[in-house]
Predict the structure.
Amino acid sequence: MSDSKIVSKVQEDDLPGLEANLDPKPDWEPRYPGSGRLDRKVAIVTGGDSGIGRAVAVLFAREGANVVISHLEEEEDALRTAELVEDEGGRAVTIAGDIGDRDHCREIIDLAIRKFGQIDILVNNAGEQHPDKEVTEISKKQLKRTFQTNVFGMFYMVQAAMPYLGRGAAIINCTSVTMYKGADELLDYSATKGAITAFTHSLSQNLAEKGIRVNGVAPGPIWTPLNPFGGASEEKLETFGQNVPMGRPGQPNEVAPSFLFLACEDSSYMSGQVLHPNGGTIVGS
């Protein structure tokens, strides 16, 4: 079990859903032995309870990191991810709450410092999406909520973490292929991913003199709880992932290595860049 668990009563819809209830289960297991690339590092992974976040947390632990797992209210998934991190030899701590709340983001950072004394890697992975066939169907509440989680949450996490990020630290933001090619049913979500990409480019320049690298990962269609539990229409789910050149959705453990590369010294001369694990779709960088 994890060292500590902070639970807040967060109300949400069905999103992002429990990975424990997903069938078939996503592949999160690391695909190769660790080599100590994150030895003695401390990483925060938002949305770390399931999907890409789980795969990243476990892979980071295999490479020697301790991990703070931020999640909304999927406690069962978060505790399972913490167990998996510890199975890899890392220490894990979980914290539940809404990253769209600036005070909660400060709580995440405070927890990391209390438990581990440092922060080396910030993975801004948490996000939400809601399908709408018509732009007029997007409610004011939904529009605010999507930007609050996807964009404001990243700003809040970075702002809270900055006092503890030193030279050599890495920030990795999760954007999306939808930023580059669009998505007819994900208008507000795609707009937030455009904002995230611009934020990544600009923040990388802002923090370059401090020796902090900022990069992004833009996954394509990945099999996680986000889409089948309300993030995509039934029509889209019927052919999910089939429209990419590889003809299938990706798995979380096919995305996590991109985050690892950007977190470790292998990418020491990279900042302001975006990697594209998207099944072969050609996009502008």
Remarks:
- DSSP finds nine helices and eight strands in the chain.
